[in-house]
Amino acid sequence: MQKDQLFTRRRMLLAGTAAAGAAGTAGLFAWGTGGEPVPPAAPAAGAPVRRLPMKPSAYRLQPLTGYGPPSTAPRRIPVRRVPLLRVSARGRTMVLTFDDGPDPRYTPGILDTLAEYDVRAMFFVCGAMVAEHPELLARMADEGHVVGNHTWSHPLLTRLSRRQIRSEMSRTCDVIEDAYGERPRWFRAPYGAWNRAAFQLGAELGMEPLAWTVDTLDWTTPGTHTIVNRVEQGAGPGVVILSHDAGGDRTQSVRALRRYLPQLLDSGYHISVPHRQHL
Ligand SMILES: [Zn+2]
């Protein structure tokens, strides 16, 4: 891995806005690369540019799509009836997602492994956890990971009033924006328990509902080996993997990533994050 040019996520968003606008109409999803940059149309004045390691080739090869409008722009999100279970993928692309964090005991270890292999992932965070450890979201932003909304306190949404669901979701959007630098574009219901209000409110708040394809059941602490096996047996194009970086002892989840990530890469999988495209 070489040190090369990389812009902060916010800087990339500025650059990507112009690129996405120029791209015109497109499908809902496109594969982006999370933290990998698009060249800015013009040098942005002022803000210093922080640099992170990345593959130099990625700079040239990634399509200039998918970064979407700035966070202040209204977004039109369809109200779905079911969550997305996988993502459209070209080739052997997969998504790794980590829920319930951030947790200073486990999240840094996961981030370290992702950084070692120059891979971007998704973190569905709980607002209450973010409020305690905003620095971990700043690191996710700096390292190009995508952060999604997993409610404030991880309740079973199907037992809450619409007003309570709105509060759980919107407070979390706000704390993510403060810590991460932009509002989340993805929502995941705790326990995978979705209802109509969750889909409607998520769309109102500019978020797409993303579930998962493969559940590692890592929260049952089945053993590192079992978690690794579940990921490898479930691997496939467009597959979204669910594991956890908080909510209990996640030592096995951290260790498992260290084993299955290099194995997936060796098998030819491209581990990435989805980006939405907007008209
Ligand atoms: Zn959860």
From TrEMBL:
Stored Pfam families: Polysacc_deac_1 (PF01522)
Q: Which domain of life is it from?
A: Bacteria
List the GO terms this entry assigns under cellular component, sorted alphabetically: membrane
Give a yes or no for keyword Protease in this entry.
Answer: no
Give an example GO molecular function: hydrolase activity, acting on carbon-nitrogen (but not peptide) bonds
- InterPro entries listed in its UniProt record: Glyco_hydro/deAcase_b/a-brl (IPR011330), NODB_dom (IPR002509), Polysacc_deacetylase_ArnD (IPR050248), TAT_signal (IPR006311)
Q: Where is the signal peptide?
A: 1-20
Q: Where is the NodB homology domain?
A: 92-272
Q: Which GO terms describe its biological process?
A: carbohydrate metabolic process
What UniProt keywords are attached to this protein's entry?
Hydrolase, Metal-binding, Signal
Q: Which CDD domains match?
A: CE4_NodB_like_6s_7s (cd10917)
- SUPFAM superfamilies (alphabetical): Glycoside hydrolase/deacetylase
Q: Name it.
A: NodB homology domain-containing protein
